[in-house]
Amino acid sequence: QVELVESGGGLVQAGASLRLSCTASGRTITSYDMGWFRRAPGKEREFVAAISWTGAETYEDFVTGRFTISRDNAKRTVYLQMNNLKPDDTAVYYCAAKRRTVPNFDNWGQGTQVTVSS
Q1: Which of 19, 38, 41, 97 lies 20 to 30 Å from 87, alpha-carbon distance?
Q2: Is the CB of residue 79 less than 8 Å from the CB of residue 67?
């Protein structure tokens, strides 16, 4: 298991940018796929972006071109750069991790709140 701690959330106006960070403790993340998910009020948790252990990036359509996921294995940290934020991006953002050999994310952080005002 790996413990994940998110940071970087906050309250911003539409059009602003935020960078979320997720730092892992307990072990290196070199062989882990990392991801970001979010849960908006009254909605189910949804996938946002992922970066594989090889560095391959995957994005949900609604963030393509606005969000960028990256990782720094030496710092055990994964980032989510969010640009041109919209009110619909308001949600709790969760970091997730899984070993490259398993199909589903099974390590989760506590989440960080992102609120975008119009």
Answers
A1: 97
A2: no
Three-state DSSP class for residue 75: helix
- Pairwise CA distance, residues 10 & 32, whole Å: 27
CA 37/CA 41 separation, integer angstroms: 14
Q: Closest Cα to residue 80, out of 93, 97, 92?
A: 93
Q: For 11-31, how does the pLDDT look when each residue is reduced to its tens digit (9 = 90+)?
A: 999 999 999 999 999 889 999
Would you state the pLDDT for residue 64?
84
d(CA 85, CA 17): 6
Separation CA 118–CA 110 (nearest Å)? 26
Reduce the DSSP state of residue 83 to 3 states and report it.
coil
Distance, in Å, from the CA atom of 41 to the CA atom of 46, rounded to the nearest integer, reads 12
